[in-house]
Amino acid sequence: MNEPASFHMPPEDFRRFGHAVVDWIADYQQRVAALPVTPRVRPGEIRAALPPSPPEHGEPFDAMLADVDRLILPGVMHWQSPNFFGYFPANTSGPAILGDLLSSGLGVQGMLWSTSPACTELETHMLDWLADMTALPAQFKSTSAGGGVIQDSASSAVLCALLAARERATQFQTNRSGADGRLVAYTSPHAHSSVEKAMGIAGLGRDNLRLVAVDEGFAMRPDELARQIAADRAAGRGPCLVSATIGTTSSNAMDPLPAIGRVCREHGVWLHVDGAMSGTAALCPEFRWIQEGLEFADSYAFNPHKWMFTNFDCDCFYVADRAALIRTLSILPEYLKNQATQSGAVFDYRDWQVPLGRRFRALKLWFVIRHYGVEGLRHHLREHVRLAQEFAKWVQAEARFELVVPPPLNLVCFRFRGDDACNERLLERLNASGRVCLTHTKLNDRYVLRLCVGQTHTKEHHVRAAWDLIRAVAESLD
Amino acid sequence: MNEPASFHMPPEDFRRFGHAVVDWIADYQQRVAALPVTPRVRPGEIRAALPPSPPEHGEPFDAMLADVDRLILPGVMHWQSPNFFGYFPANTSGPAILGDLLSSGLGVQGMLWSTSPACTELETHMLDWLADMTALPAQFKSTSAGGGVIQDSASSAVLCALLAARERATQFQTNRSGADGRLVAYTSPHAHSSVEKAMGIAGLGRDNLRLVAVDEGFAMRPDELARQIAADRAAGRGPCLVSATIGTTSSNAMDPLPAIGRVCREHGVWLHVDGAMSGTAALCPEFRWIQEGLEFADSYAFNPHKWMFTNFDCDCFYVADRAALIRTLSILPEYLKNQATQSGAVFDYRDWQVPLGRRFRALKLWFVIRHYGVEGLRHHLREHVRLAQEFAKWVQAEARFELVVPPPLNLVCFRFRGDDACNERLLERLNASGRVCLTHTKLNDRYVLRLCVGQTHTKEHHVRAAWDLIRAVAESLD
Predict the structure, then answer these.
(1) Is the Cβ pair B23, A15 closer than 8 Å?
(2) What are the pLDDT digits (tens) for A389-405?
(3) What is the pTM of this model?
(4) Is residue A1 assigned to a domain?
(5) Minimum distance, in Å, between the CA of residue A261 and any CA atom of chain B
(6) CATH of residue A438
(7) What count of CB pairs under 8 Å joins A to B?
(8) ipTM surpassing 0.85, yes or no?
């Protein structure tokens, strides 16, 4: 056969370059602790180093890999550094990276069961495994009327929950006729910003999100929730969703699910629970108290891509009534009709999410769970929590510092005994040192530093070094 | 230092197993043509072969990789087979897989410029490169008031376009107060189902999507569009968005952008253009006619993850007025505040999309563009179009077959001269053979077969073999 020229990468090159990239990553994992965690680049600096025009002719792979070192690496924040304590972790691991690599190689689309049955069935199976591993209430397993699906993020999960709640509250008429401004939803001022964003997206209006007052530990007050719902009902509004958080972003506060759940049940309001980072802790029996009351929830999300050694993106989203979710999001054009769908015997996950297309993300979860086993995952989570608790003790033992709230798990909120400007300067200098990355929040209008232990390779000496640095920098402040 | 036990994959194991996975993919690419394209599994069959419970203890990597062969592979549709002609392609390539692997290894979060400046700046730069490569109108480049961002899919792109259009039409009040059922949008009955889905999600209501009549080539009729918009205005409704398609899913019909664009401009309606698969063709000057009139558009999307050898997910979404998009989707909680954002000198891409988190997807685009060069990409696109056009000629030359519409690019709609049941049976038998995958649609209420040429390694002999098989199976039908 006389084939025309090809510009594709020949299999032998793919092997060679692929091995080189794998080795690059292994090297990166070994050297990342020594790199400045936070990049020091000015806006536009990376772009200015890139060629203004795309290449007309192909370039050698080695040049591309060298440019990653030369142009890209100085411009990234090293989320995989063991000295990374900022935001929430986005921890990765060998088995996750390789499971994801296989997904890239297979390149299948999982939008329908029929477009790759294994993609859908492994996903359902992994979500059921995780439900067992974290002792989720039975309503979230696929063997009940509910089930789980992988979303890209907890933001998308809360959006899907809100949409299903919106539809349930309006007998599925909003989807058809549009919103009418009557529905309201509830969360705490410490909930993730994605709840407010979802209100805007869903056409319900950000102003119709009630921020329910919190207690002194920054957890939602169920009595206040009940009061607001009753007031809204009396005013002719339609309460449709409460979004509670187990582990708020700012301070890891735990909303009291049992009391909130009872209020929701009494008023027929959809309860969504966001356990984005902290939900993973429920792998360990001693941390399962965070899930108490989850049996009241209509939906629940937690992110293995934060704290379970699984590459982004991987949010596990569970619903108790999958029919409500599917009815909200399903659509069936002719070109997607097929026998399996029509038989009703399969899940078509495109009906559980906003986008149509989806990659084979269950592979990386499968690899992570099998590589670590339940005991391995538990071991490392316990160690992260232990280190954060140690850190909190060090803070408490030092008169110049203040522990702002008792840390329930792996996130410590603390401040230097000085004004906000002083704490802000402390954080700036810490991050400018390149030796750690911490971030901040505000609690009771005071500037607070956050240290979150969760990167895959963070060990005691990294936390100890961070603390030594914090004390030293604090001492040097004018 | 006395470190506790670790269950993490040691770097040396990561190298070894990583090389094995790379080799597995290289082998897969070499053997995939011989595998049955469409899996033959019953619902539940894959799950039944998986252990009901997760492992308590870790398992060896080799066992996991062997299980991919044993349990997963028989259950996937081989989208990367050169004999795959179904739906739209989701073609991958060596450089894309390796760019994505690097992204997994780096594991950075690109939600803000400051959380990894290189992630944001390379993305902006690649989107500008692609704008140049496909000769997009100037309003879509980041150097204007617009710019581009990577979304997961064209579904999410049209949702974001609709949200921004909704806000622009209501002076950004819907986001605050909720929708009021007054807004309407327009598309053709042949547009992708994601437009209707987006109407439901955005709280505008699926019933408020007008399906504008099409001409005999299944393209939207601008006169009908103008008539409907005028009628809606007269009835006090608020026309907010027209979603036009260049290359509909069913038949690759091209909506006439110049005329549609003039109608939109006259009425102040946001024009979104969906070029999901076909937009990539504009890399070749001779196919740029499909973009004629794109200068009228407020937003535009095309998917390198379909036809540009770039792994899912990678939809390029461009807006002419980025301020409108950002104002619609931005949110700024305390814990995400930072100097770069406050300076206004950077893009924070979380404000250009629904989710907060985002992976470093520009790396794979960078690798693909640099590996192939513009000439390499053009070469393979031209070859795909040539093969589809050849196939169409073969269909036309055969009296028993009918070409349903002239194929503009790489998608051919055809049918066997018989009733719908006969064509349905033909498709079933073709796919059951394992030797090809084709899909179907309905045009003018008739069942039509679709053959789309776009998989990375599809060559003339694969298309020829598909045609031989189609004729043979057709002949064997009772």
Answers:
(1) yes
(2) 999 999 999 999 999 99
(3) 0.97
(4) no
(5) 26
(6) 3.90.1150.10
(7) 562
(8) yes
